[in-house]
Design goal:
Nucleotidyltransferase, domain 5, 2 domains, 6-stranded mixed sheet, 10 helices, disordered C terminus
């Protein structure tokens, strides 16, 4: 969820309005819409403008209202549905990518409500992977310092990291090899074709990097592919590329697939 987004809390009944006002007092940068008119047009406009929505009404109403304007899980804003008594919180749209799942947990805690998750993955423990790129002969010490800073920013520990990953032209990079050995983590490299499969998930794209190595970003791409390898499932960035003068680092996560969970 974007930090500068204005949350729209939509209520259609008096009981829902009381809940909306209660939530509005607890949330920052939020507005209450009570029986907005014209309903569909106003809600759809807010959704298309990227505004997160808390809909205090029946799920069916929300589905019918938003169905015509749903675009992609990678760009749609998060949507939560609450019953008018505030007993249940349902992340309905953009659970992973838009942050509705985590936002739903926060709202449920504020209201002492029950979070109702309709996807299996969030119940599973995620796997994390680090992606790194660097100039030739970048020292291990600089790489390790950058990695530790990134872990701190992501609120992760080294024990939670499953692998360190990069592009195949760095397979012989001494600093990366020494870092992985020192931290006792697997070091994996992937070719440009493999890394290009996650191009649509990158936070930024560098034409310079593309012309140099054939992908638009080494650290983020390697982290995403590495996390997918750990779980055989879809991955997402949790820390965009950070860099020093000689190195870059990003962190991705993926939840185990249903098949792995059931095995």
């Amino acid at each position: 969820m974007k930090d500068n987004s204005s949350v729209k809390i939509v209520a259609l009944t008096e009981a829902g309005l009381r809940l909306a006002e209660q939530l509005n007092a607890k949330l920052e940068n939020s507005d209450v819409w009570y029986k907005p008119k014209p309903f569909s047009e106003k809600v759809q406009y807010a959704f298309q403008a990227g505004e997160p929505l808390i809909m205090i009404c029946a799920t069916g109403i929300v589905v019918r209202t938003l169905a015509p304007v749903l675009a992609s899980k990678l760009q749609d804003p998060p949507v939560l549905v609450l019953d008018e008594l505030g007993q249940f919180v349902i992340p309905l749209v953009s659970g992973h990518e838009g942050g509705a799942n985590e936002w739903g947990r926060q709202v449920a805690e504020l209201l002492n409500s029950q979070l109702v998750m309709t996807t299996a993955n969030p119940y599973l423990k995620p796997k994390y992977a680090v992606g790194m790129g660097c100039e030739r002969n970048c020292p291990k010490e600089e790489l390790e310092c950058l990695l530790m800073d990134c872990l701190a920013q992501a609120n992760l520990t080294l024990d939670q990291i499953g692998s360190i990953n990069s592009i195949d032209i760095k397979a012989d990079e001494v600093g990366l090899i020494e870092l992985a050995e020192h931290l006792e983590k697997p070091f994996n490299t992937f070719d440009a074709a493999e890394l290009s499969t996650v191009e649509h998930l990158l936070s930024t794209k560098s034409d310079y990097v593309f012309k140099t190595v054939g992908v638009y970003g080494v650290a983020e791409s390697a982290a995403l592919v590495g996390a997918s390898q750990l779980t055989n499932a879809y991955s997402e960035l949790i820390l965009n590329k950070h860099k020093t003068a000689k190195a870059t680092c990003a962190i991705a996560r993926a939840y185990p697939s249903d098949a792995r969970r059931q095995s």
